[in-house]
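Practice problem 4.
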C-alpha cells in the first residue's frame, strides 16, 4: 500500500453527491462550515465531481465565490429573472407514479447496466408527455442557479447518463458542452423533467448510476465524499429518486466505491448528514422549504467535521 501511495500524486478530489434541494443546501452548508473551521475545500480540492444536486453544488463550489457568500445566497430569498421562479417546472406526471415506476424498474433490473438502460428508456418515454417546453424551463431554472455560466479553470466534472444506451457521460471543460447544458443533463430526473439533448444525444440524471459516483475519483491520493443520501442509518426517505435500490454486488453503492478507492491507495473520508442535519432535511428532500434549515444544519456540522480532515 505504501508503494502505491508513493506513486500517486498528492492531490485531493472532492465528491458531491445527490440529494435534491435539501441535499444541495446541505452540501453548501458543509463546505461553508469546513471553511469556517479552516478547511476551505473551494481552494484545496484539485478536482470536484458532482452528481445530480451535487452537480449544481460543484458549479457553485468552483465559481470562485467564497464559501461564506455561497451559504449566504442559500439563506437569502432567491432573486430570479423576470418570468422565472427558480422552482422545477410542474410535472404532468404525478410524482408518486414516477417514483413507483422507478421502484419497479429497480426491482426488475438484473445489473447496473440494465437499470441504467431501463431508466433511460423511461426518460425518453416520458418526453412526449412532459413536452419540450418543460425542458426549456428546466434549463432556464438550472441556469438561474449557477453563479457562473462558464466552466471554471480548475478541474470539475459532472455526471450524466446517455438516455439511449445507459452509458456513463462525464462532462468537463474539455467535453465541448456548455456548463449550463452539462448541469441540466446531470440533473434531468426521468419522469419529472424531459431528457436533455446535447448534440443530438439525450441525457438523464447521473444519480441513476450512483448517488455519488465516488469511483470516478480513482487515482487521487485523497478523496473527500460529501454524501447527502448514502450510508444513512435507517430507510431512505420514501419516494426519493436517489433511493433507487441497487444491489451491492453491482458496486454502485458508496460502500463498494469507497472500498475500491482504498484498495487503489486512496485515503477516503466520507461525511453524511448527522442527526441534526437529517432532521432539517426532512423526508422530502426535493421540497425547497428544506433548503434554509438544511444549509444551517450543514454549516454547524461542517465546523464539527473539520477535525476529521487532517490530511487536507
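Answer key:
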Amino acid at each position: 500500500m505504501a508503494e502505491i501511495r508513493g506513486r500517486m500524486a498528492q492531490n485531493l478530489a472532492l465528491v458531491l453527491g445527490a440529494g435534491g434541494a435539501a441535499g444541495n443546501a446541505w452540501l453548501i452548508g458543509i463546505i461553508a462550515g469546513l471553511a469556517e473551521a479552516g478547511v476551505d475545500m473551494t481552494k484545496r480540492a484539485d478536482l470536484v465531481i458532482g452528481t445530480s444536486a451535487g452537480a449544481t453544488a460543484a458549479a457553485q463550489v468552483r465559481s470562485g465565490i467564497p464559501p461564506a457568500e455561497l451559504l449566504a445566497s442559500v439563506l437569502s430569498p432567491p432573486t430570479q429573472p423576470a418570468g422565472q421562479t427558480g422552482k422545477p417546472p410542474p410535472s404532468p406526471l404525478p410524482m408518486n407514479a414516477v417514483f413507483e415506476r422507478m421502484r419497479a424498474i429497480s426491482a426488475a433490473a438484473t445489473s447496473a447496466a440494465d437499470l441504467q438502460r431501463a431508466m433511460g428508456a423511461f426518460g425518453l418515454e416520458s418526453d412526449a408527455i412532459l413536452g419540450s417546453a418543460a425542458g426549456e424551463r428546466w434549463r432556464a431554472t438550472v441556469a438561474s442557479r449557477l453563479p457562473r455560466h462558464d466552466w471554471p479553470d480548475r478541474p470539475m466534472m459532472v455526471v450524466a447518463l446517455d438516455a439511449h444506451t445507459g452509458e456513463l457521460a462525464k462532462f468537463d471543460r474539455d467535453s465541448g458542452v456548455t456548463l449550463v447544458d452539462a448541469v441540466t443533463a446531470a440533473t434531468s430526473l426521468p419522469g419529472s423533467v424531459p431528457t436533455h439533448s446535447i448534440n443530438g444525444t439525450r441525457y438523464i440524471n447521473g444519480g441513476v448510476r450512483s448517488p455519488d459516483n465516488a469511483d470516478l475519483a480513482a487515482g487521487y491520493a485523497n478523496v473527500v465524499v460529501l454524501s447527502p443520501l448514502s450510508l444513512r442509518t435507517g430507510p431512505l426517505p420514501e419516494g426519493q429518486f436517489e433511493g433507487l435500490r441497487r444491489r451491492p454486488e453491482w458496486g454502485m453503492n458508496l460502500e463498494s466505491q469507497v472500498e475500491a478507492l482504498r484498495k487503489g491507495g486512496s485515503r477516503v473520508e466520507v461525511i453524511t448528514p448527522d442527526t441534526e442535519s437529517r432532521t432539517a432535511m426532512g423526508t422530502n428532500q426535493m421540497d425547497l422549504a428544506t433548503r434554509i434549515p438544511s444549509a444551517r444544519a450543514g454549516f454547524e456540522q461542517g465546523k464539527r467535521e473539520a477535525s476529521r480532515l487532517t490530511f487536507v
